[in-house]
C-alpha cells in the first residue's frame, strides 16, 4: 500500500496507524583512536577520542513517541580496565554519551539513552539513518612506558520503543531488539623528555687564563622505561674540534664542555654522548617523573691569545636520542 493510500485509510479507521519511519539495528563499530601522544601529554593532560559508531544505528522515529516505557540501553564490558600497553601499564579512561562530561557511562552498568534527551541532541530521531557515537577521555596521572595501548570493549545494546502511533495517539507497534558489538580503543605513547639546562656564564676576566671553570649540571626526565643518551652540539662556531664564543666584531673565544668533573669532551655523536646509565644522579632508564642529573664543567682554553674586550656568546643544542 502506498503512503497516499495509507492516509486514505486513516479517514475510515480511527486506529489506522501512520507508517513507522524506521527501526534500530546492531551494526559493526568504528574504532576509537586517541592517536599518538607523548608520555608527558598522557600523564599531565586529559586526552580525548571518540567513535562515530558505537554499534547501534537507528533510521529515525518520531521524537514525541518516546515515553517512560521506551528504552535504549548500552552496557559496556569489561567492568574495569583501560588501554593496556606492552609492559603491563594501563591508561584508564572514562566513557561519555556525548561530547561533554554531563553523561558519564559506568562500565558494567546499563546506561539509558532513551530518557536523557541525548538521542534527540544527537539528531538520531529525525528520520535520517545515524549511528550512536561514543566519547572517551583519559584520566590524568598515568605514568607509562612508550608503546601501543589497546583495549577491546564489548558493547551490549538493547532497545524497546514505540515505532508507530495511531491517530488517537496509541502505540500500535514496538521495535524491540538487542545486539552485541566490539569496539577497539587504542592510544600510542611516544617517548618524551623534560629538560632543564642552565646557561653557562664565565663572567668576565682580563685575560683567558683568569676565567674560572664553571661546574654545574643539567637534568633530564624521560619516559618511564626508556634508555637514552644525551648529546651536546659543537655550537655555532666550532673550529678544529673546539667550541668557540663569538663577539659582534667577529672575534672568538674558544671554550669547551666536559663530562662530569673530568676532561672528556661532551659531544653529539658516538662515545662523546652520555648514556642515561651514565647519569651522575639516578643513573639508569627513565622513570617518567624523577629527574636524572648530568654534571659537567666548562672551561675557557688557556692556550689561546686573549681576544679584544667584548661580550662573547655561543649557542649549544642538547639532544636526546632513544
From TrEMBL:
<keyword id="KW-0732">Signal</keyword>
<feature type="domain" description="Spore coat protein U/FanG">
    <location>
        <begin position="21"/>
        <end position="154"/>
    </location>
</feature>
<dbReference type="InterPro" id="IPR053167">
    <property type="entry name" value="Spore_coat_component"/>
</dbReference>
<feature type="signal peptide">
    <location>
        <begin position="1"/>
        <end position="22"/>
    </location>
</feature>
<protein>
    <recommendedName>
        <fullName>Spore coat protein U/FanG domain-containing protein</fullName>
    </recommendedName>
</protein>
<dbReference type="Pfam" id="PF05229">
    <property type="entry name" value="SCPU"/>
</dbReference>
<dbReference type="InterPro" id="IPR007893">
    <property type="entry name" value="Spore_coat_U/FanG"/>
</dbReference>
<feature type="domain" description="Spore coat protein U/FanG">
    <location>
        <begin position="180"/>
        <end position="317"/>
    </location>
</feature>
Amino acid at each position: 500500500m502506498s503512503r497516499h493510500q495509507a492516509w486514505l485509510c486513516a479517514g475510515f479507521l480511527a486506529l489506522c496507524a501512520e507508517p513507522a519511519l524506521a527501526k534500530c539495528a546492531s551494526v559493526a563499530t568504528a574504532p576509537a583512536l586517541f592517536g599518538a601522544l607523548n608520555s608527558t601529554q598522557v600523564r599531565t593532560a586529559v586526552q580525548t577520542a571518540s567513535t562515530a559508531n558505537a554499534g547501534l544505528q537507528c533510521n529515525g522515529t518520531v521524537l514525541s513517541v518516546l515515553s517512560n516505557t521506551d528504552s535504549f540501553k548500552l552496557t559496556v564490558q569489561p567492568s574495569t580496565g583501560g588501554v593496556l600497553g606492552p609492559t603491563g601499564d594501563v591508561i584508564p579512561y572514562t566513557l561519555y554519551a556525548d561530547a561533554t562530561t554531563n553523561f558519564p557511562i559506568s562500565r558494567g552498568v546499563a546506561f539509558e539513552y532513551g530518557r536523557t534527551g541525548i538521542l534527540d541532541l544527537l539528531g538520531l530521531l529525525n528520520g535520517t539513518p545515524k549511528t550512536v557515537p561514543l566519547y572517551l577521555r583519559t584520566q590524568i596521572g598515568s605514568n607509562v612506558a612508550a608503546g601501543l595501548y589497546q583495549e577491546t570493549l564489548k558493547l551490549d545494546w538493547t532497545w524497546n520503543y514505540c515505532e508507530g502511533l495511531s491517530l488517537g495517539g496509541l502505540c500500535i507497534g514496538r521495535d524491540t531488539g538487542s545486539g552485541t558489538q566490539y569496539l577497539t580503543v587504542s592510544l600510542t605513547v611516544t617517548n618524551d623528555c623534560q629538560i632543564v639546562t642552565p646557561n653557562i656564564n664565565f663572567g668576565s676576566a682580563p685575560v683567558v687564563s683568569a676565567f674560572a671553570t664553571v661546574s654545574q649540571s643539567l637534568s633530564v626526565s624521560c619516559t618511564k622505561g626508556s634508555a637514552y643518551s644525551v648529546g651536546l652540539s659543537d655550537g655555532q662556531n666550532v673550529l678544529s674540534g673546539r667550541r668557540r664564543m663569538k663577539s659582534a666584531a667577529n672575534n672568538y673565544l674558544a671554550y669547551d664542555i666536559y663530562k662530569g668533573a673530568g676532561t672528556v669532551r661532551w659531544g653529539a655523536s658516538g662515545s662523546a654522548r652520555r648514556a642515561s646509565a651514565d647519569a651522575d644522579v639516578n643513573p639508569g632508564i627513565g622513570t617518567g617523573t624523577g629527574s636524572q642529573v648530568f654534571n659537567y664543567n666548562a672551561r675557557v682554553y688557556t692556550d689561546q691569545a686573549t681576544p679584544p674586550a667584548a661580550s662573547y656568546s655561543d649557542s649549544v643544542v642538547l639532544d636526546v636520542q632513544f
